[in-house]
């Protein structure tokens, strides 16, 4: 290429670059969305015409009672206490293209943390005291995944749950526990004698697994007081943790044991002087194959107060 052609080539390239940038800029610019109009509070009656089913349900639940008792919730009561001021939404006339239509909080589309924060404006103490950093909060579970203000299914609308009771609700996510409770020995949830919330606080607790006690043992001993002691002779794994030997949700072994006897005992007692395993005996005619196995003799396995109870025989 001759030297006199280079200036023309450079000019063409510069022109193409200039127009290319111009077109790129013109295509990348989009009009800014119209600002949402400022909204004010109107009262729950303004919601009734369009949301009659939700309004009717609201009148019967605890939130509706708070409105009729004139207990202030932030700067307003009623529907707008949770959904925000509704004047712009009402003025939109149901037109979804109108910027005012979306000024209300829609809990079905809110991020979980934002939905939960709206509830925490009022529900901060009591059962909800430990919600922050609880296992549900860490896993991005929001209040509205378990509670329904306008379509509660719980008996008597207690706690406004999405299912008839807490046990059914928990099983939606904790299906491994549902499988455990389908076993022959299980916690009495299937019979309706208790719910998951009797042992766990779904809103959080200062202990692991959202327990309603400082430890597993303290929780179990609320019902199983005969195992509390104090004992003259204590069984170390019992003193340490009940779940060393028991599966609290369900098992196919009696007394919801974590394993069948004698194999449960043999997790710790592995010496052969007894003999500890069936296979150490000259034949399989072992007394530990009969009835309750090791506890045929060691009946006080949780602890003994007898002077001769060192081996939990009495």
| Major β-sheet annotation | 2 strands, antiparallel
Which structural class is indicated by helix and strand composition?
A: mainly alpha
How many domain units? 3
Task: Please mark out the parts with pLDDT under 50 across 5 or more consecutive residues, or reply none.
Answer: 22-28
Percent helix:
25-40%
Order of helical and strand elements = HHHHHHHHHEHEHEE
Radius of gyration over all CA atoms, rounded? 33 Å
Looking across the biggest beta sheet, what order are the strands in?
1-3
Q: Mean pLDDT across all residues, rounded?
A: 83
**Tally of contiguous helical segments:** 11
Per-chain topology:
Elements: H1 6-28, H2 52-60, H3 62-68, H4 79-83, H5 87-91, H6 112-120, H7 135-138, H8 166-171, H9 175-181, E1 185-186, H10 216-221, E2 233-234, H11 236-240, E3 250-251, E4 303-304
Antiparallel strand pairs: 1-3, 2-4
What does this structure look like?
It is a single chain. The protein is mainly alpha-helical and 314 residues long. 27% of the residues lie in helices and 3% in strands. A two-stranded antiparallel sheet has the order 1-3. It is elongated and about 85 Å long. The termini are far apart.
Structural features:
two-stranded antiparallel sheet, mainly alpha, 27% helix, 314 residues, 3% strand
Would you kindly provide a brief summary of this structure?
The chain is mainly alpha-helical and 314 residues long.
